[in-house]
Design a protein that fits this description.
Blueprint lengths: L2 H7 L5 H18 L5 H17 L8
């Protein structure tokens, strides 16, 4: 676990910094999954649904 996460969970970072980090991580993730391309997003969704349908359990435990 990174130092930043440890500090945030311990309450040692100001909320503004935590929110900024969350916004940056969210933006990075949206770029990774091509959220602005509806065809790619639909392909990801279809793949996810197929994977979930293939699973025998509704909420598998790790």
């Amino acid at each position: 676990m990174s130092l930043a996460i440890k500090l945030a969970e311990a309450g040692k970072l100001p909320d503004a910094i935590v929110r900024k980090g969350i916004r940056q991580l969210t933006e990075k993730r949206l770029k990774e999954i091509n959220a602005n391309d509806c065809e790619v997003s639909m392909a990801h969704l279809t793949q996810f649904i197929a994977h979930m349908n293939a699973s025998e359990q509704i909420a598998p435990l790790p």
